[in-house]
Amino acid sequence: DEFDEEEETDFLRINEEEFVVEGGLSLNELSDHEPAIDLESGEVSTIGGYIVQQLGHLPDPGEKIEVEGFEASVTSTDGRRIEQLRFVKLPEEIQEDQEIEAT
Fold this sequence. Notes:
Layout lengths: L1 H7 L2 E5 L2 E5 L4 H7 L13 H9 L8 E4 L2 E8 L4 E8 L2 H11 L1
Antiparallel strand pairs: 1-2, 2-5, 3-4, 4-5
């Protein structure tokens, strides 16, 4: 039915290392689609809200942040919330470098 079609557009896998999500996708649904990303935040329930929380502001389209070994790029906003994000898996070397810098 209509709801199922709308549901599927929240997450679009492009290939093994890349996918696009709607900002309103719940953190639980995101981890169902991509088990490598398992985020929990008591204050927010969507990936868009999580990104805003991590950055401390509503990002502009094109702004990027690293999330669990993926680079998340904001592709669109509506002025109040993130509408869409593109995730690209980072190469292992970059992930290791960032973990070292963080310690």
